[in-house]
Amino acid sequence: MIIAYLGRNVKDYRENILRYLEDLALTCPKCGSRTVFHATYERHVHIDEIVEWLTIQRVICIKCSGTHAVIPDFIRPYKHYSTGDSEMSLRDVDDGIPVERVETTASISTLRRWIAEFREKSRQAAGALRALLFRLYAGTVNESQLFGLKIFGVLEKILKKLPRIRSSSFVIGNTNIWLTNCMAGIFV
Ligand SMILES: [Zn+2]
Questions:
Q1: Using an 8 Å Cβ cutoff, are 11 and 77 in contact?
Q2: Residues 6 or more apart whose Cβ sits within 8 Å of residue 71
Q3: Model confidence over 105-145: pLDDT tens digits?
Q4: What HEC string does 108-135 produce?
Q5: Cα(151) to centroid of ligand 1, in Å?
Q6: Residue 83 region, left (φ>0) first, then alpha (ψ -120 to 50), else beta?
Q7: Residues with beta carbon < 5 A to ion ligand 1?
Q8: Confidence class for position 159, pLDDT limits 50, 70, 90
């Protein structure tokens, strides 16, 4: 799976996905080789109160024949809610708002699952981002710069040191674009 910027929202995605895809040189997350368009499939995503169906493009690697779905960064991998909805909920929880009082279209049990998963994976993602920063740009972030920051603050700090990329302006989406396009083997 590859996360990419494919439009700001569902409408932009539907109208311009082919143009966005053509502008990207997507490489295989497994072996780094070139990919070409493969099949498509339909999946749903909850945007606010509405369930939207999206056509997801798959690409196939010319070398290892692995196929990979290309997911827009405004939805989260294997989740059926928008990145915006889950990021805002997770930020609220991070800021100390009780789970029962977080405003989200997801159920409490879904939210609790997001929190538990994110707690574990976001720290790993931050580590992987720092490793990428060093490997690709010889950049570093000192522990002292991260001291006392909540996880979104940590991710933002590292993302700021990386070159700016087009994304839907969510930390989760931005992080996932970097991680899935640079063979980090993890996403949030
Ligand atoms: Zn490959």
A1: no
A2: 1, 2, 3, 4, 56, 77
A3: 899 999 999 999 999 999 999 999 999 999 999 999 988 99
A4: HHHHHHHHHHHHHHHHHHHHHHHHHHHH
A5: 32
A6: alpha
A7: 28, 30-31, 33, 61, 63-64, 66
A8: very high
Q: Tell me the whole-structure pTM to 2 decimals.
A: 0.93
Residue type, 114: W
Is the Cβ–Cβ distance between 159 and 177 less than 8 Å?
A: no
- Give me ligand 1 centre to Cα 27, in Å: 8
22-78 pLDDT tens trace: 999 899 989 999 999 999 999 999 888 899 999 999 999 999 999 999 999 999 988
Give 11's contacts (C-beta < 8 A, 6+ positions apart): none
